């Protein structure tokens, strides 16, 4: 499953290329709580089809009623200057549209965006490029330029600027059962997923569609993957021959998340190996997370995958997790409470 922004822009491109009227809606401001963050987009076709979201659904229903199901051939305005609308200004309206208490959001409408510009943007995103899209508020003119780094949406009196792509990427080392659950969840969260496993007996049963499967040695795959600031690398094999070298390659990259599955003892042994045999130090190993995941009492592969995905998303979103969710810390506390093992 691709990034939701790309999905929205691709659908909008196809509608416009087919000559259909369509609307691009962007969340440009929020006050109080809001269902979707600033920069979120949705596309609405003249036939009522919607891709993407700006709320929990009620605002989408209102937009469909206003712009796509009025029974008029020109229900959607023609191209021209973008328009604005606010939802949730009063408590009654917030309740009507399912907005949280005190929540208000402002939307920008672009009517019949230029199909050629949309096609150019989608091509750039498909090639892994980060793009800046600027919309002139006076007439809806769009300018596309490559961007060096992701940026928050900005809006002034003359233009809207929003940055799109490239997709977040996840490289999983190991094609076991837990990798299937993690890869599936990562795709739903908008990650492009690659799974690497040189062991034929493991990858032979791989069955998650949409995931790229690599068969080379993991350290070579990490090198070819070229992890950047929108990439994460997670080792799940429990095999030092596969995990360790891949993690070493990842530690030399800009990956925002690098982690390995395993017990506290196995992760401590891995760190010791890397220090003794690969010239690593405690400082150089600080980006390496392990045991991966947050503590939710998980025991089964799908539950462990949930905990790992939750930690990846927290790091991606810049959320500092409380220590009570750190797996190693909680296990240490539980071990101390239990006391020394009984003699047998």
From TrEMBL:
Looking up InterPro entries in the UniProt record yields:
MoCofactor_Util/Proc (IPR052698), XdhC_CoxI (IPR003777), XdhC_Rossmann_dom (IPR027051)
Domain (XdhC Rossmann) ranges: 170-312
Q: Which Gene3D superfamilies does the record cross-reference, listed alphabetically? A: NAD(P)-binding Rossmann-like Domain
All copies of the XdhC- CoxI domain together span: 15-68
Name used for this protein in its record: XdhC family protein
- Species source reads Ottowia beijingensis
**Which taxonomic lineage is given here?**
Bacteria, Pseudomonadati, Pseudomonadota, Betaproteobacteria, Burkholderiales
